[in-house]
Design a protein that fits this description.
Layout: E1 2-9, E2 12-19, H1 21-38, H2 51-57, H3 59-82, E3 86-96, E4 103-111, E5 124-129, H4 134-146, E6 150-154, E7 163-172, E8 175-176, H5 177-180, H6 185-188, E9 189-196, E10 218-224, E11 238-252, H7 258-263, H8 269-302, H9 310-330, H10 335-340, H11 342-370, H12 376-389, H13 394-403, H14 406-425, E12 428-433, H15 434-438
Parallel strand pairs: 5-12
Antiparallel strand pairs: 1-2, 2-4, 3-4, 6-11, 7-8, 7-9, 7-11, 10-11
Helix pairs in contact: 1-3, 4-8, 8-14, 9-11, 11-14, 12-14
């Protein structure tokens, strides 16, 4: 076999392979013999038909199988011999192939980037020193109590902290808002709409202008749509709302006591308070670790600028776009608005994808250098945990993983976590007060 390699671009090579005619004929002969053993032709017992007849009848099938086998086997041998780490599937061009001929083919392949791994031990990071206070616990208990709040209709005027049930119609520049923003039907008209009378709820300034109103009263409310408003056509414009207050509802929050604790499966208030403290401490540790690891990732990416394989970036970009669209759909963003923002979504996704792909190569190289590996047992345990979390039978979950190449994804996830843990252990962490972290 004769092999030549040509560099087309960073992370892209052209592999030219020649296989001598003798090796080609040997494969043809072997495949023809296999057909001869299995084929049944009229007038002959299975496996007894003459070789020439078999070769003629199944000529096209034998040739296709020989081509697949010859190119597949010799492509892999060429990669091994030239020590090339290929990514994805090659683009194969057949140049010459047939019985008695030298096989010639060319493969355009993408390869892993070649780069110098930046220094990754002793990365300087800052960790905010903070602890869970009694005030944090009480604030969390209040949030739990708010989950069981009751709404009581009252006849008095609206005040801050109440809920107003309203009918409204909105205009912009004297026209229904839908003429400016066709997808904003909910901003144009609503009936029996509940508005929390609190700062910056619904549209900033809307609720404040209802304070003091009673049921049956009508008011004109003026709002300025902010620069970060979700409906881009309304940014920096003024909306005028004709609002009718239908009901005034007072929030009745239950007391924070043993009865509330029992609603959250705690024996009494003290047990609930202790459980809340543990949850807050776990959440704090998680957020501190996340902040440290974010700094580690930023430091690594900042010290490693290298070319990336186009296919890997394109594949990851599609994944990021899909996730963005799914998240927006769950939040109720209209499909039409998502379609209008597709250029911004794609641009943002492409940048995110490049960072992820670059980080994946860095993680891989660090794992190789530090001999950090993932065992089958670790992958099985992760699959078991995920199956339990999603309440899917383990056998079915594993089969689904295998169908979509999810097992490799689990390997990559665990390797990623192990390397980040290694980097965190070896980082130079400076503990700083919370006030300094915010400044």
């Amino acid at each position: 076999m004769n092999i030549t390699v040509e560099n087309l671009a960073p992370c892209k090579k052209l592999l030219r392979v020649e296989v001598d005619a003798k090796a080609v004929d040997e494969i043809f002969d072997a495949i023809t013999k296999d057909y001869q053993k299995q084929a049944a032709l009229p007038g002959f017992r299975p496996g007894k038909a003459p070789r020439d007849m078999i070769a003629k009848k199944y000529e096209a099938d034998i040739k296709d199988e020989a081509k697949r086998k010859l190119i597949g086997e010799n492509y892999r041998k060429a990669l091994d011999e030239k020590k090339i780490s290929a990514i994805g599937q090659p683009d194969i061009e057949e140049i010459q192939f047939g019985r008695g001929q030298v096989l010639q083919f060319a493969a355009t392949i993408e390869t892993a980037p070649e780069f110098q791994v930046p220094e990754y031990k002793g990365l300087p990071v800052k960790r905010e020193t903070k602890s869970v206070t009694d005030e944090d616990v009480e604030r969390a208990l209040n949030l739990l109590a708010q989950q069981h709040v009751k709404y009581e209709t009252v006849t008095r005027e609206l005040k801050m902290g109440d809920v107003a049930v309203v009918n409204y119609t909105g205009t912009c520049d004297g026209k229904p808002i839908t003429e400016t923003a066709p997808t904003a039907k909910g901003l144009t008209e609503q009936k029996n709409f509940w508005v929390d009378i609190a700062p910056n709820t619904f549209i900033a300034g809307f609720a404040d202008q209802l304070v003091g109103a009673k049921a049956g009263e009508k008011r004109t409310v003026n709002v300025d749509f902010p620069a970060d408003f979700v409906t881009k056509q309304l940014v920096d414009k003024r909306g005028v709302y004709e609002v009718e207050v239908i009901e005034v509802k007072e929030k009745i929050q239950p007391p924070i006591d043993d009865e509330l604790a029992k609603k959250f499966a705690a024996e009494n208030l003290e047990k609930l308070r202790a459980g809340v403290r543990v949850d807050l401490e776990n959440e704090l540790r998680h957020s501190q670790r996340k902040a440290v690891r974010t700094q580690i990732i930023d430091a690594l990416l900042g010290g490693a600028n290298f070319e990336l394989p186009e296919t890997a970036v394109a594949h990851e970009t599609r994944n990021v776009v899909y996730n963005i669209v799914q998240e927006n759909s769950k939040r109720g963003v209209p499909r039409e608005l998502i379609e209008k923002q597709k250029d911004q979504i794609y641009s943002s996704a492409a940048n995110t994808a490049k960072e992820r792909v670059r980080m994946a190569f860095l993680i891989q190289r660090i794992a190789e250098q530090e001999k950090i590996s993932v065992t089958q047992e670790e992958v099985f345990q992760r699959a078991q945990s995920l199956a339990e979390m999603y309440q899917i039978p383990l056998d079915k979950f594993i089969k689904d993983l295998q169908k979509r190449n999810g097992v490799n994804e689990l390997y990559d996830q665990i390797a990623h976590e192990k390397v980040l843990e290694f980097l965190e252990i070896n980082a130079k962490i400076e503990n700083i007060p919370a006030s300094e972290a915010k400044s």
